[in-house]
Amino acid sequence: MNSIYSSILVAVDGTKEAMLALQRALEMAKENDSKLIISHVIDYSAFPKKQQEDPAFMKLAERHGNVLLGICEREARSAGLKDVETTLNFGSPVVKISKERSLEFGSDLVIVGKESNEKYVRVSESIARHCSCDVLIVQED
To answer: At 87, is the secondary structure helix, strand, or coil?
Structure first.
């Protein structure tokens, strides 16, 4: 079978929507025999200024992100995927996913969950707008 997508990047943040995106990414990576990159971005702007400046708090956020990535990677490997990589970054999810990680990994598909909180809906839409490859926005049934 010729692979439509050879490198799939999925953004995860622990929300129900992101976990649905992960499930879709697992299915598509398996169908296409693709490399799967699981990415978590810690968005500074999501935290109050006091927490942004607290190294202990940011270390805790990083630890939480690494735990999340570990869970997602185990799920991918349990699904039978062999070529799986994880990446954790600090910054804007839009910039990190659409302009940096997708290019760094040569991804030809980015998968994100559609946010249920209207305040954050712009993130998935912005990723789709700024990405140079195909983007799939997964929504709940």
So the answer is: strand
The predicted-structure confidence for 24-45, as pLDDT tens digits, reads as follows 999 999 999 999 999 999 988 8
Nearest Cα to 102, choosing from 57, 48, 38? 38
Neighbours of 103 (CB within 10 A): 12
Tell me the one-letter amino acid at 132: S
Distance CA(13)–CA(19), nearest Å, equals 8
Instruction: Annotate 42-54 with DSSP letters as a single string.
Output: E-GGGS-HHHHT-
In this prediction the pTM is 0.90
The span from the CA of 59 to the CA of 141, in Å, is 35
Chain position carrying tokens 């995106």: 21
Residue 100: both structure tokens together: 């940096």
